[in-house]
């Protein structure tokens, strides 16, 4: 049976370390790292994520602000808020919870965030820095995956890594981070032919498609490391990943559960980015 990569435990260790660092930061500079979380509309999943982020801020000792705006908020109003937060000295990190309502152009909003406060690392400046490998922030979910792999003591050098999914927030940056660790990376997507033939050769499989339990044991190479980013709600309300845990765990050497795998790591990495942003701000970087 595969070893479980316990995201809950690892994220708690990351948060504990951040708490200690934050105490020292506050003592030295007399200010708290500050995160502003902006949510537009009342999507229940977004609400859950925002609450978890606020809770993590309180646990670590950050200052946090929530800006909950109605669904009817215009693009102009949201841009004005982002501008205000860009200029607010108490705020080191700005997170606009996605998805936004259809009438708001997400790209426009992301581009308006000061890249130094872009703790999601979605701004094109930060995306470009990740490509080059000289970055301030890493996008939270792929960074969380890397932390889990690192904690498990897995050396990626020369490993055949397959990322399924090519979104800007997960798949693409994930592939880049694996490449930076000297893996040989294949990216698959909805137009890829014979996905199973590709994943069956993966030493490390990262599933980020949003298709409940798509990857069963037949997709997995014996001894593979299986990372499940997916979060899918079944009709019976159960939360499952993109991987069929039961059958995949019989093949894998290590596997992340859902829930309790990548999800908690994402929030821990957001907290890490917020402290980085605060440190950079006080150092004038
Ligand atoms: P997107 O919908 O933006 O992207 C999904 C990707 O999967 C696309 O590249 C798409 O291909 C590909 N895809 C879809 N269906 C298939 C298929 N049948 N075979 C192969 N590829 C396919 O999703 P995200 O990247 O935002 O999220 C992916 C999953 O991760 C979701 O379940 C989401 O909930 C979860 N998630 C979890 C987080 C966490 O903290 N644990 C954080 C963020 C996301 P194409 O580009 O061709 O359309």
TrEMBL record:
Coiled coil: none
EC number(s) on file: 1.5.1.5, 3.5.4.9
Tetrahydrofolate dehydrogenase/cyclohydrolase catalytic domain: residues covered: 5-120
Keywords: Amino-acid biosynthesis, Histidine biosynthesis, Hydrolase, Methionine biosynthesis, Multifunctional enzyme, NADP, One-carbon metabolism, Oxidoreductase, Purine biosynthesis
Pathway note: One-carbon metabolism; tetrahydrofolate interconversion
Domain Tetrahydrofolate dehydrogenase/cyclohydrolase NAD(P)-binding: 139-280
Source organism per UniProt: Qingrenia yutianensis
Catalytic activity line of the entry: (6R)-5,10-methenyltetrahydrofolate + H2O = (6R)-10-formyltetrahydrofolate + H(+); (6R)-5,10-methylene-5,6,7,8-tetrahydrofolate + NADP(+) = (6R)-5,10-methenyltetrahydrofolate + NADPH
Assembly and binders: Homodimer.
Any one Gene Ontology molecular-function term assigned to this protein's record: methylenetetrahydrofolate dehydrogenase (NADP+) activity
A biological-process GO annotation: purine nucleotide biosynthetic process
Residues binding NADP(+): 165-167
Gene Ontology cellular component terms for the protein in this record: cytosol
Protein function: Catalyzes the oxidation of 5,10-methylenetetrahydrofolate to 5,10-methenyltetrahydrofolate and then the hydrolysis of 5,10-methenyltetrahydrofolate to 10-formyltetrahydrofolate.
Name of the protein in its database record: Bifunctional protein FolD
Family: Belongs to the tetrahydrofolate dehydrogenase/cyclohydrolase family.
NCBIfam families linked: PRK10792.1 (NF008058), PRK14186.1 (NF010783), PRK14188.1 (NF010785)
PROSITE patterns attached to this UniProt entry: THF_DHG_CYH_1, THF_DHG_CYH_2
